[in-house]
Amino acid sequence: MVAVTGLNGIIFAINSDLIEHVEATPDTVITLTTGNKLVIREGLEELTAKVIAFRHAVQTGFYRETDHTDA
Description:
Layout: E1 2-5, E2 11-14, E3 19-24, E4 28-32, E5 37-40, H1 44-60
Antiparallel strand pairs: 1-2, 3-4, 4-5
Protein name: Flagellar FlbD family protein
Organism: Granulicella sibirica
Keywords: Cell projection, Cilium, Flagellum
C-alpha cells in the first residue's frame, strides 16, 4: 500500500498493484484497474518514487507496516 493525499488533504492508502495508469493534467490523476479515478496532491514523480520504494521494500524484506505511516 502507498499513502497519498487527496485534494481535500485527507491521507489514504492505495494498492499500487491496482494502478493502471497515472496522468499529470496538471493534477495527478490515478486510474485504477477497477475504473475508479483518484486525484491526488502528490506529483507524478513523487508517486512513482513512493511505489518504487514500497515495492523495493517488499521485495527485499525490509517492509514493515510501521515504517511507512508517514509516506
